Amino acid sequence: MNRVFWKDKKVFITGHTGFKGSWLSLWLQDCGAILTGYALAPNTKPNLFDTALVADGMESVIGDIRDLGKLTKAMGDFSPDVVIHMAAQPLVRLSYKNPVDTYSTNVMGTVNLLEAVRKTASVKAVVNVTTDKCYENKEWIWGYREDEPMGGHDPYSNSKGCSELVTAAYRSSFFKYLGSAKIASGRAGNVIGGGDWAEDRLIPDIFKSFENKESVVVRNPFATRPWQHVLEPLSGYLVLAEGLYLDGDKYAEGWNFGPKDDDVMPVRAVIEYLVEQWGDGASWIHDESDQPHEAKLLKLDISKAKKLLEWAPKWSLFTALDSIVEWQKEWLKGGDVKAITLKQIHEFEKS
Ligand SMILES: NC(=O)c1ccc[n+]([C@@H]2O[C@H](COP(=O)([O-])OP(=O)(O)OC[C@H]3O[C@@H](n4cnc5c(N)ncnc54)[C@H](O)[C@@H]3O)[C@@H](O)[C@H]2O)c1
């Protein structure tokens, strides 16, 4: 990403109170961008948004993405150059419990976002953040390419496939004209990083157990996941937004931002590495009870982003895991969380 591009750019971020949103907001604040965020209040305690004082460097609007009037007003009042849409119900297991909320937030939320963009003439570039789970999962060994069919077995994955279809329909119906905003989507895998306290996610669960000195209970140790540090896809979204803003139609499509092939690893490899790095008697056990269906094999083909955006993953899985251990230890000892987050952002940029 190009820091100079982002200086003084007005960026509207939905989901800025979440894990990825907080990292992205701090990164863009550090580049000198002018930010307005739109999201619900953080729903975990602790959370990165509050602990890293993210609101200090931006205008923060607390609102529901399903409230079209409020969303349109917040965007219109700000008149952004770029919109990055991350507000979503992002958890697979919660989507089995709350399918209606998941669909209304993830699908109608996308419709509302794009409606608000239609009414805000200043917007030149929009990145809709979906997921690798948006593809019809064939449980095969090859990476999915951007033009493969959308699908999704569970409500979360499927709602993100729908969000992609909404994006494509809005692009061809409303955003193909000269001067209209350019719309793309970014598909990335499971992201990891310091400061994630979401329920029912592996890395947060691991650190909660470490901190409570309990064994980590792992549901699917043999499932393979495309692990990547949160800064990897965020850098992809930023490079993509730059391309959309500067070169328009050429970039207005879907993009995969997955990890290196070597970093598609079983859960077991991650937990064993973290147990070793954490020390202090850390341990894990396999929960063999029946679990709701989750995709077991999922890989993205990132050739397109490498070739056309000159984007590529930077950190290995183990560098990412080391950075999380460093982050969580800093937090545990009451250190400056904003400073460590910015330090890791600078290290990532230099690597
Ligand atoms: N974390 C991952 O591993 C991962 C992987 C692939 C894609 N994603 C996508 O990245 C985005 C951010 O995920 P995250 O991990 O930061 O999740 P998160 O739960 O930490 O953050 C979600 C954000 O969306 C907001 N939000 C939720 N419902 C809302 C509503 N009805 N109205 C307004 N705001 C609402 C929350 O307030 C929060 O700011 C999501 O779109 C998610 O699907 C995440």
Strand count, sense and barrel status of the largest sheet are: 7 strands, parallel
Beta-strand proportion = 5-15%
How far is the first residue's CA from the last residue's CA?
13 Å
Structural class: alpha/beta
**Which spans have pLDDT < 50 for at least 5 consecutive residues?**
none
Mean pLDDT: 94
Counting H and I runs of at least 4 residues, what is the number of helices?
13
Shape: globular
The spatial strand order of the largest sheet comes to: 3-2-1-4-5-6-11
Order of helices and strands: HEHEHEHEHHEHEEHEEEHEEHEHHH
The percent range for helix content is 40-55%
What are the bound molecules? Answer: nicotinamide-adenine-dinucleotide
Strand tally is 13
Rg to the nearest angstrom? 19 Å
Can you walk through the features of this model?
The protein starts with a helix and ends with a helix. With 351 residues, the chain is an alpha/beta fold. The chain has 13 helices and 13 strands. Helix content is 44%, strand content 14%. It has helices at residues 3-6, 19-31, 48-51, 68-78, 92-97, 99-118, 155-174, 202-212, 231-247, 267-278, 303-308, 317-332, 337-350, and strands at residues 10-14, 34-39, 59-62, 82-85, 125-129, 182-187, 191-192, 216-218, 224-226, 228-229, 254-256, 264-266, 284-286. The model has no long low-confidence stretch (mean pLDDT 94). It has a 7-stranded parallel beta sheet, sandwiched between helices. Strands 7-10 form a two-stranded parallel sheet. Helix 3 (48-51) links the parallel strand 2 and strand 3. Helix 2 packs across helix 13.
